[in-house]
Amino acid sequence: xxxxxxxxxxxxxxxxxxxxxxxxxxxxxxxxxxxxxxxxxxxxxxxxxxxxxxxxxxxxxxxxxxxxxxxxxxxxxxxxxxxxxxxxxxxxxxxxxxxxxxxxxxxxxxxxxxxxxxxxxxxxxxxxxxxxxxxxxxxxxxxxxxxxxxxxxxxxxxxxxxxxxxxxxxxxxxxxxxxxxxxxxxxxxxxxxxxxxxxxxxxxxxxxxxxxxxxxxxxxxxxxxxxxxxxxxxxxxxxxxxxxxxxxxxxxxxxxxxxxxxxxxxxxxxxxxxxxxxxxxxxxxxxxxxxxxx
Length: 294
Known about the structure:
Blueprint lengths: L2 H39 L3 H27 L13 H30 L8 H28 L2 H28 L3 H30 L5 H12 L6 E10 L2 E9 L6 H19 L1 E9 L2
Parallel strand pairs: 2-3
Antiparallel strand pairs: 1-2
Helix pairs in contact: 1-2, 1-4, 2-3, 2-5, 2-6, 3-5, 3-6, 4-5, 5-6
Membrane topology: Multi-pass membrane protein
GO molecular function, one term: monoatomic cation transmembrane transporter activity
Organism: Companilactobacillus nodensis DSM 19682 = JCM 14932 = NBRC 107160
């Protein structure tokens, strides 16, 4: 596959990701506003915490959308690999945002629990929580399917958070029902648990995006590529192999040992054959191969 085809496919994936991201901004804006308004009027600390969680997701998808817009910028003399890292940076920023909101939700939940606020939430809050939870789960399935098809890591990371949002909303609705029957403290405790889950999600997203941002690469993938290159008989030994990921694009840098009698034409043909093989099987974007006779 030629570079122009790769670039065209990448731009198509980014545009598709943008459409999904902005759709999710609208979706989360509506459901978070609904949770916050209903939670305020029916005195449900847990539903309000869930609403803040949704508001955070609204900002998260907005940040991802802006990151995807920046990632569309073409390669220039200062960015030879393009701007694809902007997607990873956007994902990293969302993890920080989720973490901060999670700490605030935990704080508010603890305050409500310590102050012994015995106000019981209304059943309306339960219906809102469960209904929105089921709707969010449907949206999660759609987003996961599309994100997997276009291989968008930021959207995949956000979809995992969306699954947790769906479970949290349904659980919140069930807890509110129990709280309404005389266990008001459960509503406050559930708010704290929501905050803890938000912190956990933030850590997982941060860990994954930070690993990619500092050019971390899966050792298992490198071993797979190494075995594939070793299948070519003219390769005596692979002296060094390094990988770098720019979202959906993988760049490989390899130093191999070959027979000293090989001509420049033969090594060029060998490199082209290996690159074509890796592109077809693993979607390698670019292969930088150097030859050694030692």
